[in-house]
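May I ask for a single protein's sequence together with how it folds?
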Amino acid sequence: MKVKIKMRKIVFLLSIVFVLMPVESQSRRDATTSFPPSWWVGMENNRVQIIIRGNFIGVGTATINYPGVIIVKQFPGYGRESNYLFVEIEISRTASPGVVPIIISHSGRTTTHNFQLQQRKKVINPILLNGTDVIYQIVPDRFANGDTSNDIVQGFFEQIDRTNPSAIHGGDILGITKNINYIEKLGVTAVNLTPIYETNQLIQSYDKFAPTNHYNIDPRLGTFEEFSNMVSALQNRHIKVLLTMVLNKMGYQHPFVINRPVQDWIYEKPDINLFITPNNTLFADPYASKEDLDLHYSYYWADLHIPALNHNIEHVRKFLIQNVIWWIETTQIDGIVLEDLQLCGHLLLKELCTAINKEYPKFNFIGIPNTDLVVHNHFWKDGLLDEQCFSHVSDYPLYMEVQDAFAEYKNTNDALKGVYKTLASDIIYDDPVNQLVIFCDGHDLTRLFTLAEKNMSVFKMYVGFLLTTRGIPSFLYGSEVIMEGLSAGGYGFVRGDFPGGWKGDTFNAFNPTTIPSKQREAYTFFTNLLDWRKNNPELMQSEIVQFEPTDDVYAYFRSAGNKKLLVIINNNPNVPRRMETNRFAKTVGKIDRAKDIITGEVYSGLGNLILNPKSILILELTNN
């Protein structure tokens, strides 16, 4: 019996490997392309590594006869009859935009590859995110299907299947553009899209975290023209656009995996530790051994079909860095988001930050290190390099404390102390108000309403705290209408379809007047707070004064000029609490009027207020 079971496992694993084996089409072998396909005149990063791909192209020698463009060096790719030729060029500021013919001579024959040299559209100088901003995260495949004609694209393995949480569902860029009115009325100031790379994988290609072409938008999401129109439409409404980039991995169907440009382009997957969990402490550990670091980098594949890139290779780093700059310049976005910093080599990050700062001295570059230690979070923000690298980092330490702070199964006063102590650790940061991004939830985190165990009062505590504490809040599409999803059950369940994004949906959340009462209650709570934030930007950039949690009550105060905000949380599930005005008197001062931001109710002072069990009170204070 044991032998039979073992054989079944072997057959099952072999079948997976067979299904995931890379498939190189004839058109891929015969096509001549380059990575990048184009560059610009007048860039600070004017030395460009071009990887030309074509049938046996590596045996040739390249020449360029174009004013202002010279070849600095060239060499063939991996293999005796390589399909890659690396050509590094330098572009002078005197060069003119146009088509640069790269003549490749081999075996008495010549091949011409036309490289595009473009005029820059404009100097990119976005406004940096600060404490007044709120980020709305969108997974394009799951937001809205604005164009059904791109649901099925010839030559792509996966087809649309909304019954499968891990399959393509059909959301696209046009779906976002068609619902910009909703995004604007919601009150957010920035949109963060998960990756939009072409991802022609056999499975799980909906989230685009396993690119198979770094220089294309997945056609099932739309075109560059549609993306540019979306970016312009959002920016015209003063909504910043952030795009998530992927640097640590690529899809198994990527041509650079099927036929590697250099021998060690990706790490070979060891037979052991098939799905190793990243050690987020290791890379900020000053005492970490080289053996542990090398072992960890080389082991981590995201999945059987998603290899890890080898950042020790100079040409891999150049490819990735140029790709990031190419996307910024092509799409004119306001910022990029980089997840899994602990899986990116320090040298890659240093070179990337240097290149971005050189090209765009003020640019929104958000790093997500996923560490629950404040000191290590600071390492990724300011301690990684000699000069500042990321403009912002996520505040995962605070998220880790907040997710359990209002849970009923914990000691309710002690649970609040984790939040209190984490905020007390802000002393380590230069500017926590404007440089820390607080993920309320996210595309790989449990949804807020699920975190609140579907309790509306607890949900409001989460939302109320996250939208009024210091930092830049970021939440996932649909959280405002209490979409649910447990991350432990699979990311596909967290990334559900936004209600109304598809014909035939039960209700249309894009029209809040028609949604069910419970969803409308949550939406109203969200929008009231977001509107208040917009009208009080000074308060959202002010410092916090917090009061130590006592008897399940936690409070904090913010002020700017004559504007004052007091937030009080009663974490007890059963007992109401009366306000103790003496507790806040020295900090808050004389108060004649308190207005509940959510309900609009006005109180004469604080003395008669009662805090209900499991509730948050958000008060705007004034005195005569």
The chain is about 30% helix and 20% strand. Residues 1-20, 24-30 have pLDDT under 50 and may be disordered. The first strand starts at residue 33 and ends at 35.
